Amino acid sequence: MKRIILIVCILLSFKGFSQKELSRNTYLYGSIKNKLEHNVLIVLDNKDAKSEYIMKQSFRSKMNNIFTLNQLVFPGEVCGDSQYKDLLKEKDIKTVLNVSVYKREFGYKYGWVGQNGKYMDGSNGSINSDSYAKVNAGEEIKYLALKLDIYTSKDDFKKPIAVIVSDKYRSSSLGNEELLYYRSIIQQLSKGLARQFPFKK
Questions:
Q1: Residue 198 maps to a domain
Q2: Of 50, 153, 45, whose CA–CA distance to 96 is shortest?
């Protein structure tokens, strides 16, 4: 139900654009086939170096033409609008891939504490509730969606020519660390983008 609501919201935001399912949980709004040019700049809202690497790896044959903001700006340095525009000109950037968190949801996890003070995770289904007390064990991530806005130099990077949205629900294999979900979704986004043969030949 939540995914249906999310898709409806996106459709309203990008009314007039075609929607295409690139893979499970990954949707493209707009058209990008043979529309993008090098050089490319990747900008991630969390500035995670590994996520940037994952994204670059999806375009192995074009690696020399792809930059990340972390490559061009010192760690911790704030990149203002004027500096950002100068970087685009200096590196002759033609396409910007901008990834940001579109939506996130958290819930509460619980556990059990026995009379001896021993704690057990709430996922254990064999607990005797007479011997253990149920306790709140804090927040856990339930859902994360990322949005990839694709800009080109043709309109001076003013409006995205296409948008890709990808999401993921809580998975025991990813645990409770948001960064792991972020990287997993980056992989989904990147694969979906690469399969569209977006760059001009």
A1: no
A2: 153
